[in-house]
Batch of 4 targets.
Target 1
Amino acid sequence: QAQVAALAAGEAELGDVPEDLVVACARHRLPLFAVHESVAFATITEHVVRQVSGERAGDLAAVVDRHRRMMTSGPAGGGPDVVLDLLGSDLDLRAWV
């Protein structure tokens, strides 16, 4: 068991969420979110972080620190790897892309 709460699938590469992924998620009763290509991975992650950990994410200093770490981690903020590292280190959440 993967113990996941939901799956977010980006539409940038294929234009739409693949039908076989939609069917598989429905079969396993796993919520599936289609993510438009204009939505940044960091935007979704910050929203989830705020929902999962209101106390930690509600702390302005923590939000600013996470933002700073994302923006200073290599070209273009380091991409999803930096965000995933922040989820693991700040909230002990595991996520994969």
Note: The longest strand covers residues 7-10.
Target 2
Amino acid sequence: MPSVGIMTQCASIRAKDKPLEKCSNKAQTGSEWCGRHKTTQVRYLDNTGDSISAPLAETKPKPKPETKPKTNTDTKPKPEATDKEKAAAAHRICSVWRRHLAQRTGPLLRHRDMANNPFDFFSSDPVAEIPLQDFTSFVDADGKGYIMDVKSVISLLSHAESNKEVPLNPFNRASLPPLFLQRIKKRQQHKKVAGWAVIQPHTEEQRLSLAVTDVFRMMEDQGYYTDPSWFIDLGRLDLQRLYLEIADIWMHRASLSTNDKNRIVPPPGKVIKMATRAVVLMPLKGLRPLLLETCKTLVSSATESSDRRLGVMYVLGALSCISQGAAEAYPWLVEMFAPGCVSRVTAGQLHVIHPSVLAY
């Protein structure tokens, strides 16, 4: 019996076409044949005619020598590209880059003069000065193009999301194209673009100034010139007068039908949220937010731009009866709405021409 670690060589010939060579495989345990020749069993005979079944020491297979990769010395160097091939390659690169820019910035990158807005709605920067990395544009369903700073758009979307509102085009209050919103969202994911830094007011004056500026910018978006100082400089009695003037214009002087009012301020919006008799008793601290909310409701609630412009005209018309700056800027509004429902203020008292305004 062979010792441990010793294997017996198969007794078969290597193959039919090689009868003079012996199989080099080891025999299976308890047999003189390997697994391949177990069924054929054609015994190998040496030159003397004797069969040979010599023991074979088990050895580890020799590692294959490392061979260096063959280098094809016959390979000829590639010929240098011709000028025509270089131009074609450059054209392909430019085409890919232009396509990438069009997908990233929208259709108006090379046509800024065709934009329907000359300024960015948030930063008030001219659209011609918006840098490439912040540029974005779109064309709405009416075929009108708009250019914006991407940081302004992201600030707009963040504001709409925080207030659970649908983001609208700030220039005409129409829905923003879904493809444009998708493009902005993709830029946020890939480039981590943030909106404009939010200015945090630290004093009451700063908070008032920011709130007034926001409302007055809405009026400017409708094509009117404004100055926040027209509102900021108003005292307690002036703000009470402004509320009474707006109430009288809305309820009487403008001769608005119910349908007209619903177009300018769609339900459930409400312009006169507090009774005029209560307003004439309010302090300055409560009057400012009430008047700002009233003005904002009038200038931003309507769906159609023409109706929003009407709301702006009523607010500026009321202001022109009280603010000297507004009266000088809009003399035609003074002619339309003067003298107003309050004739004068004496000894801290309002003298109302039409007492019916106190019933609103």
Note: The first strand starts at residue 6 and ends at 8.
Target 3
Amino acid sequence: IVNRTIAALLSSSLAVGVLALCGARPTLPELVSWLDVETLLLLFSMMLLVAILAETGLFDYLAVLAFEMTGGRTWPLINVLCFFTAIFSTFLDNVTTVLLMTPVTIRLCEVTQLNPVPVLMSMVIFSNVGGAATPVGDPPNVIIATHPSIVKANINFTTFTIHMGVGILIVCVQTYFQLRYMFRDINKLRHSVPRDILELRQELAVWRRAAASLSSYSRDEDIVRRALEKKVEKLNMMLNRREAGGGASKTDPMFCSTLAQMKQKYRIRDKPLLVKSTICVSFVIIVFFLHAIPELQRLSLGWTALLGALLLLLLAERDDLEPILARVEWSTLLFFAALFVLMEALSKLGLISWIGNMTENLILQVGPESRLAVAVMLILWVSGIASAFVDNIPLSTMMVRVTAAMADPAGLGLPLAPLAWALSFGACLGGKRLKTLASRRTRAAKDPPGYRGRGSK
């Protein structure tokens, strides 16, 4: 399988070559003008913010905090991990968030004797769903929110988040209950019967045999038998709690020892940097929401994020920027740049307009009062089904152009906002259909070390 960045570069080069053969060879300045600098700037700046924030050890600390809060109980632990992942993915790069939490999550699964694959997949799904709530949480949303037609329609950060947030909350509830139903048997979250449960069963069997061996003919034997039965009842309650994913008691010496070791290993490594990072990220998010004020719309999302990243670089007082810049996903930025060139070349070749005309002709088959509903359903399901089998980033890059054409007064003249929400829901949520094909989830959903092959069950 060819790397997606190489594939995008080859495809864009081929499209430009075909365009040159057709007599419309673009110049180098024209090719550069095809790049969506706003999208690239937003992605680069958010990557910088996450890269610096990751150096504080915050993500590892939150995972250990979840272990402490839940006492290692299975479903409460998974719930808190998914909650943390969804919240961070709302404003930060979702795949980076999952990748940063993966090592400590695998360690938590080893301690609680869980199979990390379903746990990580649950986190990936909630990361995907949470990232769909804002324009900066998922790359398809970045492409949609920064498109010129969307910006001209006054769909700002606040408007986007409010409209998408309501639907995402409903999706989160539905996803949670679906996961609970899929793993209603708690043993499906484990490799096999955990060792501590086997030891409890063996100990319980020993105490039961001891209690059964005593008769009730003498008072002394009756007292001993009752004491043994109380011990059996206590062990049985403990066994039931463990089998139900109840975890260990917070006063359990083994739990306390494990928690102390993990706190020592996964701790906040740089508290001053954490405070500075929190201030800068909060500043960026607040300014994002303030874009609802017309006077503040002159500063775009990309430039807002860049100012926040530059502020954090100044506050961090790092002499060497190479380790931070090494964390930036340059291949992803190059992938986006190649896609922008490819889509513009295809647009000049007439492919995008042909797809738009075919879509318009299909929508025109219904009455004027039903055209918006048909267009919304068409965009939602086409983008949702297609993004389950192909990369949702190029799909969004193409579909946002088709969506803008539907809203053109010279064409159908449909309202742009509902079409944008439909495209966002379809591209973002459809991408979680197959873990091996959704572009921003592929690396995070790979089999963890030591568990190869189990993720494809």
Note: Residues 107 and 116 are 9 Å apart (CA to CA).
Target 4
Amino acid sequence: MTSENVAEHEAVEAAAAVSAKAVDDQLIDELVTRAQAEGLQLYAQQCSELYTAGGFAAVRRTAQAGLDQVGPTAVLYRWLGLAHAAEDEDDHDAAAERAYQQGLASAPDDLGLLVCYLELCLRADAFDYPARAGRVATLRARIDELAPARSPEREHVDDALSWAGRGYWDDLVAAAGRGELRQAESAELSDRVASALRTGSTGTDSSTAAGEDRSRQQVGRRGRNLTKHMPTWGGA
């Protein structure tokens, strides 16, 4: 083999090696992307289940672990912010705002982040947190640009705005309504237990039965009265 043939052969082998490396790199990138997507889905599902169960601290740990492993993603920043905001404390509200801002830095058009951030700003006291409260108009305008009419996001915003517009007396009536509901449920449960005990025992006089009947009637009246005081505004 001449020196020219050797050089040509080496050039072909080098080109083949470069091509093979490029293919390997592409496959590796695809595998990493797939693993990240699957990991993101797993973390998001765990956050959803924990949030539903009321484990807000666990949601925050899970979301942060996902961000550390997968990298900046809107859905995990959203869960992180929601789990802070759910605590309804000033320091957690500040942490929620940081999470939403970090998420929007990497995904500025994510409607989920925008809506969650809007809800947080709607909750802010304009006197204590003027900057946060002042972002409502900007966020609302951006959401209106991105969310089509009658979309779930737009409806969520309308509900949040309605919720934010209620006054002191609306809050008072809502709290009273929740208290009446808990009392009615407790009375109904006690009535069921008493009825079960009466059915399983002997010698129960008619006055006891009459008293339990009156208790059932009172529970029914509470329930009917409660419906008149239930708030008509949407919840966030």
Note: The two ends are 80 Å apart (CA to CA).
